[in-house]
Amino acid sequence: MLIHDDTIAAIATAPGEAGVSITRVSGPEAFAIAETLFDGKTRPSAMAGNSFAYGRLHAADDGNATLDEVILLAYRAPHSYTRDDVIEIQSHGGSVSARRILRAVLEAGARMAEPGEFTRRAFLNGRLDLLQAEAVADLIRARSDRAASAAVEQLAGKLSDAFNQIYDNLITVAADIEATLDFAEEELPEETLPALSARLRDVVQAMQDLLATWEEGHLLRDGALVVISGQPNVGKSTLMNALLGKSRAIVTDMAGTTRDTIEEHLVVDGVPLRLVDTAGIRDVDCVIEKEGIRRARASMDSADINIHMLDASQALDTQDAAMLQRLDPQRTIVVLNKSDLGNRVDTAALPPDMAYCRSALRRGEGLQALTDALAEHLHVQHNAPPHAVISERHRDLVHSALGDTESALQQLEDGGGDAPILSSQAMREALETLGTVTGRAYSDALLDTVFSRFCIGK
Ligand SMILES: Nc1nc2c(ncn2[C@@H]2O[C@H](COP(=O)(O)OP(=O)(O)O)[C@@H](O)[C@H]2O)c(=O)[nH]1
Ligand SMILES: [Mg+2]
Asked: Of the residues 86, 157, 252, 311, which has the fewest C-beta atoms closer than 10 A?
């Protein structure tokens, strides 16, 4: 265990008015600091771990004026979140009260904690691995039920188990390959290398299975970027408002009403969405609208899903045909709106694998069919049990480890005298990379990146 010689403190609860605020103090001086600030029947220095005490907190100077009535929660190392001695001060909510308490704690000798520093200590003290520490931030950030469930699974160690298993399998195959170096080539039993290749292929498969969870992870963590595009006046802003259930974007019968992109958050079937309404795409001279159209195109290119809207009552024109060609059928849902005015779009002219649905949004019709299509495109299995999914950081590392493992496999299969040496070298590289996923190996720079995503007080 790492012994920290300084004591850190921060307000752990969100700022603003609330019933209770919690100020967290972690480190060797936690109890001594509480001792100087707390008046009550119980002396903090005499408190057992996992106990609490009621009393008053006062500033050390300032004429000993009472700051608040508080409850102290005591945790003795190593039985705490950070595995240091920890005191949590529960005070009345509200930013001012909590800030006054924090100031008193800092004046009594604690240092202001960096973002995520409590969790960083928990990691350094071996209470959590890096994947579990990241799950803490994911859980705090979760914007939907499903995202929260995935984070809880990761916090419980599901993703760590998957990575550890890959790591352990890879290390035993590497060791067994290295063991073959002790044999002269003709002494080696014939089945040895093919058997090792087969085990390595299983590792490759397990890595690929993990990589396949990235897309879902990305949708749950970052939210799916869903962009509503189409020509002016087809009903894009009407759809934005209908999905949000409120009048967010201005709707008029004048083409060119929406000039900038408008982004709002929404949850569909447990998946958080970033929904973007765009300026209608058409040829214009107005510089403002031109810029809006440029932004619309940029959003469409980075979208996870494009909802491309057409006016069902008008036949497709060349502009529509050009836009439809640009869109990726796998990531596009065409909405034929204004079907109350007629159906003049020849659906046979739509790109063959592009999903489409009809709506008459002015009458409130067709929204359900669209959200169903959206849920289907988000590829989220409705009944899949909650499971941990990898993030962008993990994806890049698994990708690189996979490349090395595949080349190790290639070496083995190609055979030749150097195959075992070259193959085990490539596997060592893969192991090194995988170690930085769970935090078996880490640098300060890696921890700085991971924990900079955290809020102060966690
Ligand atoms: N008849 C009919 N009009 C619609 C429908 N949906 C939207 N509109 C109207 O079409 C006009 C343009 O809508 P708007 O949402 O501003 O289109 P945008 O330019 O694509 O954002 C408005 O007058 C809407 O009320 C529909 O389903 N049927
Ligand atoms: Mg609009």
From this structure: 252
pLDDT in tens, 114-159: 999 999 999 999 999 999 999 999 999 998 888 899 999 999 999 9
Please indicate, yes or no, if residue 65 is contained in any of the structural domains.
yes
Q: In this predicted model, what pLDDT tens digit does every residue of 226-239 receive, in sequence order?
A: 999 999 899 999 99
Query: From the CB of 227, is ligand 1 less than 6 Å away?
Result: no
Q: What is the CATH number of the domain that holds 433?
A: 1.20.120.430
Cβ–Cβ under 8 Å, residues 351 and 381: no
What is the value of pTM for the model shown? 0.81
Residue of 160, 145, 172 whose CA lies nearest to 268: 145
Q: Which domain holds residue 16?
A: 8-128
Note whether residue 67 is domain-resident: yes
Residue bearing the CA closest to ligand 1, atom 13: 235
Q: How far apart are CA 47 and CA 31, in angstroms?
A: 9
Residues 279 and 354 in one domain: yes
- Please report, for residues 7, 115, 122, 392, the alpha-carbon distance to residue 161 in angstroms, rounded to integers and kept in the order given: 33, 27, 19, 19
| Domain CATH for 56 | 3.30.1360.120
Cα–Cα dist 235/149, whole Å: 36
